[in-house]
Write a structure and sequence with these properties.
This protein is an all-alpha fold and 196 residues long. It is built from nine helices and no strands. The radius of gyration is 19 Å and the shape is elongated.
């Protein structure tokens, strides 16, 4: 990538916005340089100036999307007086209300099943996500051992990500009853009590 001026960074972000729209609306198989250039309304050569290959575009896109999600999680769990378990649950579950974000992650998961670079990026993302939840657990369940906190954090992440598919309507339907049960189980995971 070339040295970026403020205007160059703005153009690069606009191209990544276009790539994100293509991925969310059409899927990973349609994420081609041509499709992104068309979506952005630029010539292919303009896009290739910033992203010379699909791999470079995909890497930058994953870095941006996953970093943005981690920033949201970090803001919820890492700040002093984070607001407790319900504030964390409200914040993370709110992401499920954004259909484009859920579609985007669904496509990222699908790409990770076939693309080693995408798979490594996704594994790194979830490792960091669980690490943020461990920080939260240190404050809210101080009696847990480090190993137990890590296990609970990983289960929390698994449940939240699976819940995204069901709550968004992709793999199921949201209901007040299942939301209440999900919150009950997640609250138990984030406290010292054993989930029941």
């Amino acid at each position: 990538m070339t040295t970026q001026t403020p205007k160059g960074r703005q153009r690069r972000e606009a191209l990544l916005d276009a790539a994100e729209r293509v991925l969310a609306s059409s899927g990973g198989s349609e994420l081609t340089l041509r499709a992104v250039a068309d979506e952005a309304g630029v010539r292919l050569g303009h896009l290739q100036y910033y992203f010379p290959s699909r791999s470079a575009l995909l890497t930058a896109l994953l870095d941006r999307v996953l970093a943005s999600s981690l920033d949201r999680v970090a803001r919820l769990v890492d700040r002093p007086g984070a607001g407790g378990v319900d504030a964390l649950l409200d914040g993370v579950l709110a992401d499920h209300d954004d259909p484009s974000l859920v579609r985007l992650f669904t496509e990222i998961w699908a790409m990770a099943a076939h693309d080693p670079e995408a798979s490594a990026a996704v594994r790194g993302f979830y490792d960091h996500y669980a690490s943020h939840v461990v920080v939260f657990l240190r404050d809210h369940a101080p009696g847990l051992t480090g190993t137990a906190a890590r296990r609970r954090a990983e289960v929390f992440v698994m449940l939240m990500e699976g819940a995204a598919l069901f709550r968004s309507g992709i793999a199921g339907r949201r209901s007040a009853g299942t939301d209440a049960d999900l919150r009950r189980v997640l609250r138990a995971l984030l406290r010292e009590e054993a989930p029941g």
